[in-house]
Amino acid sequence: MLFHSPEFIFGFLPLCFLGFVGVRRLWGWQPALFWLAAASLVFYGQWSAALAGLLLGSILFNFGAARLLLAKVESRPTARRLLLGALAANLALLGYFKYTNFFIDNLNQIAGSSISHLNVMLPIGISFYTFIQIGFLVEVYNRQVSQIRFSHYLLFGAFFPCITAGPIILQKDMLPQFANARPMRLDSARIAVALTVFGIGLFKKLLLADSIAPFANGVFDGAAAGVAVAPAAAWTGALAYTLQLYFDFSGYSDMALGLAYLFGFRLPLNFNSPLKACSITDFWRRWHMTMTRFFTNYLYAALALPMMRRAMRESYGRIARFLAATAMPVTATFVLAGLWHGAGWTFVVFGLIHGLALAINHAWREAGMRALHPALGWLLTMAVVVAGLVFFRAADVPTALALMSGMLGMTSTEAIGTTTVPEVARIAADPNAALVWIALLGAIALICPNTQELMSRHWFSSDPQPDAAHSAPSWLTWRPTLAWAAVGAIVLAAALGSISSHAAFLYYQF
After folding, report:
1. What does the pLDDT read at residue 502?
2. What is the predicted pLDDT for the residue at 100?
3. What is the 3-state secondary structure (H, E, C) of 331-376?
4. Together in a domain, 30 and 85
């Protein structure tokens, strides 16, 4: 059951919402939270009852660990041991399901062994709900949580709008909202805003991301099959996938925030027009924003601060201090962030590309160099982004290298087969149509205001509301009028008309 499936839109969602409203009216706020948590477990359980049990077990374990940690938080050595034990248990669970077979493959290759894969099914969203709960434990240890209520924690750990692919929420994002009971009356303006945001996300997913997907899939699948990919086809595939992932993840993020706001809750933003970024640091402030926040707060800081203290204590030179306290931590952080996305060397290379690019960006600023012209900065940023996504999407490193060779005009048909370029074009359908889609979606991503800019008059996120300088022009900002209702109805109808071909969100793979 996907956010864009008929079962969800016409079945689960209205029943869940009406049940939430009814329970709130009849029995109060806390039972309504339990209802929403139970509905979230049902939503997750439709993939597998066993995996829903795994999610519930993870929530119960971490709730118990958090309660124990809260009781011992003033005894720092004991609290530290408890925290490390709980973190190890969470990472072991994630590692078993996500990385066991990756480890076996590499062990077989290095040692020449022939260990068989384990029959392990990757639970959808395990990377997200594990990190959500790790963040909670760390914040309890850091004395940022003073009390824990089970109904609140259960919903925090299972909330269906963000359990499968983010955003990665922190306790400060949600627990104050759970503690603040909503009025019993229905807020028609809030419902209109929520459905509009959801509808925009649905349109992005079904009409934009899924429409350009065949062009990306054709080229990448062709390269994986040994097709010699010419520069035009390689660039077509790389750009098509960049835009497919952009609108797929942007659409999911909008739908998640709209769904949460329907119930009166505000989630943090996770997407803010990253293809408009003119530096790689700005890109990561805009792309998967809650993941960047998590890795910055809990991994980069943990690596960089001790190294900075050591560099200052031992009087490192300027270059050595930069390498130890900035370049190495940021590169290591993004290699691990890449590996977090998936168990494969392609994800490691993806993380390494971005980590090195960020290190170079920091070095440039550290050296006091002049900022690049925005156009040049944008071109360099997009070169890094597109190259990284070739590895992110490719089936394996050789396939990614074959595509990169094609993009650089170094295709060797002798090396990878005698299949000709027209066969790539046939796999990718009509190359002229691909160029039209790339131009159209690129223009939308670069020129049009994003969802939060369109909705800036009626804010729906837990993040601060943008000021007027970062909003869409007044005539383009949404208002509860008949004209905007008509536009919303057209967008929603167009999306619902494409609902039969509902491919899963790309981030469900990670």
Report:
1. 62
2. 93
3. HHHHHHHHHHHCCCHHHHHHHHHHHHHHHHHHHHHHCCCCCCCHHH
4. yes
If one counts the domains in the chain, the total is: 2
* CA-closest candidate to residue 298, choices 389, 177, 168: 168
The dihedral of CA 234, 237, 242, 245: what is its sign?
negative
Tokens of 466: 């943008």
Helices marked H in 72-209: 76-111, 126-141, 150-158, 160-163, 171-179, 188-203
* Residue 365 counted as domain residue: no
Q: Quick count: other Cβ atoms within 10 Å of Cβ 248?
A: 25
Name 461's bridge partners: 267
341 is catalytic: yes
Same domain, 176 and 216: no
Domain co-membership, 53 together with 177: yes
Of the residues 4, 152, 288, 341, only one is catalytic, namely 341
Is residue 386 one of the residues assigned to a domain? yes
The answer as to whether 321 is a domain residue is: no
Cis peptide upstream of residue 123 (ω within 30 degrees of 0): no
Say yes or no: 97 and 35 in one domain: yes
pTM summary value: 0.93
- Domain assignment present for residue 11? The answer is yes
Q: In the prediction, which pLDDT does 421 show?
A: 47
Specify the DSSP class assigned to residue 473. -
| Mean per-residue pLDDT pooled into runs of 10, the chain (510 residues) | 90 96 94 96 92 95 96 94 97 95 91 87 92 96 92 96 94 93 83 94 94 91 86 92 97 97 96 96 96 95 92 90 94 96 95 97 91 94 97 95 91 46 50 89 95 92 80 83 87 82 77
267 and 177 co-located in one domain: no
Distance, in Å, from the CA atom of 506 to the CA atom of 2, rounded to the nearest integer, reads: 12
Provide the residue range defining the domain that includes 224.
Answer: 202-278+372-503
Residues 36 and 166 in one domain: yes
Is 84 found in the same domain as 219?
Answer: no
Alpha helices by DSSP H, listed for 180-274, are 188-203, 210-224, 231-262
**306: number of Cβ within 10 Å:** 13
Residues 177 and 206 in one domain: no
> How high is the pLDDT of residue 412?
55
Adjacent-strand bridge partners of 267: 461
CA–CA separation, 455 and 484 (whole Å): 11
Choosing from 186, 220, 236, the residue where a domain stops is 186
